[in-house]
Request: fold
Amino acid sequence: MEKKIVIAIDGYSGCGKSSTAQKVAQVLGYIYIDSGAMYRAITLYCIENEINLENTAQIEEALNNIHINFEWNPEKQRNDIYLDDRNIEKEIRKMYVSDKVSEVSKIHEVRVAMVAQQQRLGQKKGVVMDGRDIGTMVFPDAELKIFMTSDIKIRAKRRQLELEEKGDKIAIESIIENLQKRDLIDTTRTESPLRKAEDAFELDSSFITFEQQADYVIQLAKSKIKNDNTIINSDVIANFTTA
Ligand code: DC
Reply:
């Protein structure tokens, strides 16, 4: 039987991590897990239940009451996230959740609970997980680690289009502001800040097509699965032409 590996995709908000991870999982027949959705689910719960983020006891109680599940959506060919029995896939992508998510995800108790759940989900391997600390904290032994970056204006434009498709019209300036604020909190927090793992391949998605970025990761993954030591050099990315 073919060896199964763990693929960790980390990087800044809006670089295309989740669409890349989804595509890679689909091609390899792996499970895709969106760890950011889990932090968003906790954030939604905290907003709806007016949890005081400064109050550790309240946070701990909330974490005991929160049940996050992923369920396969055949129409979209991906997992949707559920809070108990409620599909919250759409709600968690809204701006009011994006505005609070970095605050919630820097809380120690939240991270401990999420990392433990993510590690359980990846126990059997055959998993592609995207987030901020997957290669550094959740799966430090992942066979393949990717660190994605991208120009902020391009990231913001991509987010704006995504939100527009869902009926949310948001000015580009406020999206840039939200991304910058999240980047700052995500990279400077004391607990598991966003950073590139030493053994991660860096992938700048600014000027390449979606197909190119997915293909890059798929090639690396296949090489890791075969263990044939023909891992393509990350310079390959420099040969891609502008999208
Ligand atoms: O990937 P995303 O933009 O949906 O993630 C939402 C937020 O969750 C992000 O601003 C930081 C946090 N996050 C995290 O701290 N660790 C992860 N592994 C994934 C996301």
